[in-house]
Amino acid sequence: MARPKNDNFLRALLREPTDYTPLWLMRQAGRYLPEYCETRKRAGSFLNLCKSPSLACEVTLQPLARYDLDAAILFSDILTVPDAMGLGLYFADGEGPKFERPLREEWAINDLTAPDPWDHLRYVMDAVVEIRRALNGSVPLIGFSGSPFTLACYMVEGGGSDDFRTVKTMLYSRPDLLHKILAVNAEAVTAYLNAQIESGAQAVQIFDTWGGALSHAAYREFSLAYMQRVIAGLKKTHGGERIPCIVFTKGGGQWLEAIAESGCDAVGLDWTTDLGEARRRVGDRVALQGNFDPVALFASPEAVTKEATRILDSFGGGNTGHAFNLGHGINQHTPPENVAVLVDAVHGYKRK
């Protein structure tokens, strides 16, 4: 399996020299694009869109038709995994994802098992195959999953949460039950990401969206330890090519060194961490990804360019080890024309 024609993103993750700083955007296929909204309307629902390989392929490619991005990311949702575990995922209008059967009872937690991705999540693998075919070797395809802890947050809370009271109460009062959920989730995420790799994903990202909600000690025990378990079980090569792994903990700046030691190839940063400072702290152990504040895309084109340049300047010299990205997913109200400004600013930047 040869590398894509534009392999700058893969080279950045593996700390090899790149022609320029490559970039992709978290949630780059999403509601800020009118063409995405049209496809979603055609699908009838968000879940239908996720579960149709042809429509998932269509929306994955939409941002690449508009912008000169250096990678595609599989269009899916992190909650497909707990859905495959039988928790009954649904999307309430204006309320985000919910589960019909959240994990609250000890018997339900003890009955939890990891789904076979080739059986229960086949539609995701079919989408990966279709997207790779459509990309035709142009840019790499990123696969992804939620982290074991982030998935557990939704599985126990039954949906999103402001304070994660239910899952954190379980963490402190019945850590054995949360560890059981996390162990099953780690097994499920490892199998799911490996199936994506076997289907054609050329890099994978673990989204630890809610790890930053934990205390210092709890983060290491309940989030990082289980991501390490996943990373240790991932296929490092496929078809003769290295498959890099990115870990992104939102709010994880204080644990940078620990994340860098987890076995991943790259650490994703949110906008609260200085990129240059992060580089000094981790040295050449890992590549870094990030970390433009998504809300800065609402500013003037001049301000977008200025902020992108500031971030690139802070990384410092040498075209190795940096993939530009947002510090979190793109906001649905973002002006699409400002994304083009950002792409041009990053690609046009010349390192000192």
Short recap of the structure:
With 352 residues, this protein is α/β, with parallel strands linked by helices. The chain is 47% helix and 11% strand.
What would you say this structure looks like, in words?
This protein is an alpha/beta fold. It has a single domain (8-292, 320-327), classed as Alpha-Beta Barrel (TIM Barrel). The chain has 16 helices and 11 strands. Helix 15 (301-315) links the parallel strand 10 and strand 11 (322-323). The chain is globular and about 60 Å long. The relative contact order is 0.14.
Question: What's the pLDDT, averaged over the residues?
Answer: 96
Which radius of gyration do the C-alpha atoms yield? Answer: 19 Å
Question: Based on CA inertia axes, which overall geometry fits?
Answer: globular
Q: What is the percent of helical residues? A: 40-55%
Task: Count the beta strands.
Answer: 11
CATH topology: TIM Barrel
Instruction: Return the domain count.
Output: 1
Order of helices and strands: HHHHEHEEHHHEHHHEHEEEHEHEHEH
Structural class: alpha/beta
CATH class: Alpha Beta
Q: How many helical stretches?
A: 16
Strand arrangement, major sheet: 1-4-5-8-9-10-11
Which oligomeric state applies?
single chain
Sheet bearing the most strands, described?
7 strands, parallel
Strand content: 5-15%
Give the low-pLDDT segments.
Answer: none
N/C terminus separation:
35 Å
CATH architecture: Alpha-Beta Barrel
